[in-house]
Design goal:
Blueprint lengths: L1 H5 L4 E3 L5 E6 L2 E11 L8 E10 L3 H10 L4 E2 L9 E5 L5 H15 L2 H7 L2
Antiparallel strand pairs: 1-2, 2-3, 3-4, 4-6, 5-6
Length: 119
């Protein structure tokens, strides 16, 4: 996953937790990160390295992925109304991960970079 994400143009890995962002002008926009699960109410969220949160183009795409394969894709109340899907890593092969990360990168990268890179 790290190799795939870092091969995309202008991508950096987060210093404080497992996640990837793309440079967008002077800022960075996250496109994939470790899921932080709320295990106990009113307690800090706990990193789940077996699940990755991945940006998607819109809520329709999110619902489509979840409906098509709930064994791989799911969501939780924290992500309601937000265009990201949670991915069970054990259920996704390398080619699927490459497609998910590339699509997520496209959602957050500047359109000029997407066009320039041909990705």
């Amino acid at each position: 996953m790290r190799r795939i994400a870092l091969a995309l143009p202008e991508v950096v890995e987060s210093d404080d937790r497992f996640g990837f962002s793309v440079r967008h002008g002077a800022t960075f926009k996250g496109f994939a990160w470790v899921w932080l699960e709320r295990v106990e109410p009113k307690r800090p969220r706990v990193p789940r390295p077996d699940v990755l949160a991945v940006r998607v183009a819109n809520l329709v795409e999110k619902e489509g992925l979840i409906s098509a394969d709930p064994a791989r894709f799911f969501t939780e109340p924290h992500y309601n109304g937000f265009p990201a899907v949670l991915v069970r890593l054990a259920e996704v092969d390398e080619d699927e991960m490459r497609e998910l990360l590339t699509d997520a990168w496209r959602c957050q990268a500047p359109q000029s970079l997407v066009k320039e890179s041909g990705i």
